[in-house]
Specification:
By secondary structure, the protein is an alpha+beta fold. It contains 12 helices and 19 strands. The protein has 3 domains: 81-199, Uridine Diphospho-n-acetylenolpyruvylglucosamine Reductase, domain 3; 203-290, 2-Layer Sandwich (Alpha-Beta Plaits); 293-381, ACT domain (Alpha-Beta Plaits, 2-Layer Sandwich), CATH 3.30.70. A hairpin with a 5-residue loop joins strand 1 and strand 2. The two termini are 32 Å apart. The relative contact order is 0.12.
């Protein structure tokens, strides 16, 4: 009997109907609770099976393609809210709860986890932490890890690991919450998490202005990088036709009214067509969706440069891609220099070469570039992260320490030679 056959027998006895064969021929385990997830991982460790933790698939395409996976461990069965104290503004949930469902619960108490991400219904809490995507309202509310205060993980050997606590301020030991944020399933199976949350704002508006002139775009970018206003959302959409600035304000009605009025005046005075104010929540959700790339884009890249270099990088990317017959649009976070480039082409360009060229241009400005979406046929030959030598060495040391046999999502963080 092979190790895989032995593992199948053990898993079948443990899980029953919660064990199946997925569309790619992998064993798929659906543990109903964290303890069972630990037993599944322990069986995989004894049988030396490679493991791929999965959620609802919102960002399953992120990272490099895994080189092998004998067993998928899905979080779909872990959907309990384990603790919620509205007065303390702290909530603990299992990894299979979706961000949309979590915010639905919080809204009943006028609270929110303010991340404004694409695909909230398909984003599980485990996937939220593992991928650590950047939200639309990053200017006002930061990143996933800024709200994460506790994490429950099943290590590669099946041992349960807890990091952080339900107390917002704690200084005991290493910050495992930040360690697992963005790990893409390579360091352990996330089975639960604890977040601090905040009261939902009284009112929310978006200020929008079209800016056709390149000179005016640069002036506005400079103005909003040093603004004394406090926008929760500060993004700009860039295309050959010009730019659209979006500024979002949340808070008490009087404060939001004043800030949005000042923002509208500044946008108009610095060359934008008359700015409009939109209070519709659907506009905010649609804008968040654009962080996943324009509809129809075959390749989506995320570049990080200095905020002052947003326009410089955009022009460099547009010029390089135009020579290859590739159309590009972008949405950028003004205060952070993070840009999503959506690429479309009627031909079949050398995507690997284009990614390499765009990455080099970002590095020449002190930044980097990450692949978020690319055609399946070229994904195996494109390095999604392009880690430099120092970062790669550190990542490999960390991986050896937590997953010495390289059984968890092998190949996802770097391409194996």
């Amino acid at each position: 009997m092979t190790a895989t056959e032995q593992a199948w027998g053990e898993l079948e006895r443990l899980l029953g109907h919660r064990l199946s064969i997925g569309p790619q021929g992998r064993l798929t385990a659906l543990p109903p609770d964290p303890a069972t997830a630990g037993e599944v991982m322990a069986i995989a460790a004894r049988s030396r099976l490679t493991v791929l933790p999965t959620g609802r698939g919102a960002r399953a395409h992120w990272g490099n393609p895994v080189t092998r996976a004998d067993l998928e461990i899905a979080s779909s069965g872990l959907e309990r809210v384990t603790d919620y104290s509205p007065d303390d503004m702290v909530v603990s949930v299992q990894a299979g709860v979706s961000l949309a469902d979590l915010n639905g619960l919080l809204s009943k108490h006028n609270q929110v986890l303010p991340l404004d991400l694409p695909f909230p219904a398909a984003t599980t809490i485990g996937g939220l932490i593992a991928a650590a995507p950047l939200g639309l309202s990053r200017s006002g509310y930061g990143q996933v890890r800024d709200w994460l205060i506790g994490v429950d993980v099943i290590a590669a050997d099946g041992v349960a690991v807890k990091g952080g606590s339900r107390v917002v301020k704690n200084v005991a030991g290493y910050d495992l919450c930040k360690l697992y944020a963005g790990s893409l399933g390579t360091l352990g199976q996330i089975v639960g998490a604890t977040f601090k949350v905040r009261p939902r704002w009284e009112t929310s508006v978006l200020v929008r202005a079209e800016v056709p002139s390149t000179d005016r775009i640069e002036d506005l970018l400079a103005a909003w990088q040093v603004t004394t206003l406090s926008p929760a959302i500060a993004v700009v959409e860039l295309s050959k036709a010009g730019a659209t600035f979006w500024l979002g304000f949340d808070g008490p009605a009087e404060t939001v009214q004043w800030q949005s009025s000042v923002a509208r005046t500044v946008l108009t005075d610095l060359g934008g067509q008359e700015a409009t104010i939109d209070s519709a929540a659907v506009t905010r959700a649609d804008l968040a969706q654009r962080l996943a790339g324009r509809v129809g884009a075959v390749t989506v890249l995320r570049a990080s440069v200095l905020p002052s270099d947003i326009l410089t990088y955009w022009h460099q990317a547009d010029e390089m891609l135009a020579e290859k017959g590739v159309e590009v649009t972008s949405i950028a976070q003004i205060h952070h220099g993070t840009m999503w480039l959506s690429l479309t082409s009627e031909t079949s360009p050398n995507w690997a070469s284009l990614v390499s060229g765009l990455r080099e241009k970002a590095r020449s400005l002190g930044g980097n570039l990450v692949v978020e979406r690319i055609p399946d046929e070229v994904a195996p030959v494109v390095d999604s992260f392009g880690l430099d030598a120092a970062s790669l060495t550190l990542m490999k040391r960390l991986k050896r320490g937590l997953d010495p046999d390289d059984r968890l999502a092998p190949g996802r963080m770097w391409r194996e030679s």
